[in-house]
Amino acid sequence: MINAIEIKNFKSAEKLDLEFGRVNTFIGENGSGKSTILEALAFAVAAENDKLDAEFLENRGVRVTVPDFMRSQFRGGSFDKPIEIKLFIGEEEKARKYIITNKNKTFSEWEVITEDVFGYSDTLEDNEIAMKLTDLELAELPKLIERVEAILHKGQLVSAENEEEIRSLIVRAYTKEKLTENLTVNFKPLQSFAIYTPENKQLRNLKQEGALRPVGVQGQGLFRLLRQIGKEQPDALVDIEEGLKLIGWYESMDLENEPELIEDELFIKDRFLSKPFTQRSANEGFLYVLFYISLIVSEATPKIFAIDNLDSALNPKLCTKLMKYIYTLACKYDKQIFLTTHNPALLDGINLNDDQQKLFVVSRAKKGGQTRVKALSADKKPVDSEGKSLPLSEAMLRGYIGGLPKGF
Which label site among 85, 296, 330, 384 has the fewest CB atoms less than 10 Å from its CB? Predict the structure, then answer.
């Protein structure tokens, strides 16, 4: 999982440091920077894949604009300042930093420099401190290794001081190489990261495929994904059915085609109706819930992903129940999820006493306009006049935790 992120000079996020859990929810008024944080993650993924072109970014859910405005453009800022994103993944001491630049010329491409940052390692017998080698040391290292090998082969005598120096450099280089390899392995689950913003039209057209597989960021390819789950993960299909029963009228669904139909259809049974209907007649909220749960339980979807505006077309009470179920499934299927919402009821599905459930309140600085983020912890949860803990939805609507526009 991603343990933390440091963002500098990316859109409205001029400087942010955040620590994450398994399910991370961002609330805040429109334009506060919630989606920007998700996009910073996707931008880092693009840098990791060395695919910072507009097509790759858009297919991952990033709102792409001219290079100038992909950087922070607050008063006094620089158009040439690089974007810096550092991701901490796996062990806390290990991170990968992306320094991303653009010359701001017509058709100029983004360029990235990647740096691995390590703390310590106790995996070697020498228990050496794993520091970054300088460019000079790296350049001289092959010669030093040859020298040590020659000394060992010929049995030559060298001073203890020189031998220790050479040995130290080799151990440090070996440690760095192994740590880099391990870090790259840890980053593999992140490489398919995407920001999903499903759309009603795309979810109803089950035959349409997206540029991103197995499902596009707008929900394209859902029917094919459901079939894969039904064929290869029958137990996961049970979890989808269980989640859909959060919707009171739902009874069952059928993924099989009727012989007389030309197109693929998803047949849905309403427990109050005599005949099933297809996804074309299903209500919007049902399709969103189906998509979200399928996204979590499938083995083919990303291990780490984001959903922008989870509450779209959902009843407040359904949001609360869905949020609880999302966390249950995220733990069961080992997924890490980042969410944004405007619906206070969704917050009542978050348990702040569990450190793997994080709630972030996003706002803009009054003077400079930069995005600010405050993590709400259980010990800071608002209380009423009698000292009793308030539901998070009520605390938000009262303005106790932020996330609402001022002056309304």
Answer: 384
| Element holding 75 (H helix, E strand) | none
Q: For the chain, give every domain's residue range.
A: 1-194+302-408, 205-291
Max alpha carbon distance in the chain (Å)? Answer: 92
Which ranges constitute the DSSP H helices of 333-400?
344-347, 392-397
DSSP codes joined into one string, 309-325: -TTTT--HHHHHHHHHH
Residue type, 316: P
Spatial separation of the C-alpha atoms in residues 316 and 308, rounded to whole Å:
17
Condensed to tens digits (0 to 9), the pLDDT of residues 332-387 reads 999 999 999 999 999 999 999 999 999 999 999 988 899 999 999 988 888 877 88
Q: What pLDDT digit, counting tens, does each position of 150-185 carry?
A: 655 555 555 555 666 666 666 666 666 667 777 788
* 397: three-class secondary structure by DSSP: helix
pLDDT tens column, 251-277: 999 876 554 444 567 899 999 999 999
Burial (0-12, 13-18, 19+ Cβ within 10 Å), 351: middle
User: Which amino acid, residue 78?
Assistant: S
DSSP letter for each residue of 365-379:
-TTT--EEEEEE-GG
> Taking the CA of residue 94 as centre, how many other CA atoms within 13 Å lie in the half-sphere pointing to its CB?
20
Q: In whole angstroms, what is the distance from residue 298 CA to residue 283 CA?
A: 23
The superfamily (CATH) of domain 1-194+302-408 is P-loop containing nucleotide triphosphate hydrolases (3.40.50.300)
**Smallest Cα–Cα separation from 96: which of 11, 156, 186?**
186
Alpha helices in 23-97 (DSSP H): 34-48, 54-59, 67-70
What is d(CA 345, CA 315) in angstroms, rounded to the nearest whole number? 9
Instruction: Give the model's pLDDT for residue 317.
Output: 93
Amino acid at 165: E
Residue 334 has φ and ψ, to the nearest 5°, of 55, 55
Evaluate whether 24 touches 337 at the Cβ level (below 8 Å): yes
Tally DSSP H helices, then E strands, for the chain: 12, 14
Tokens of 87: 């991701």
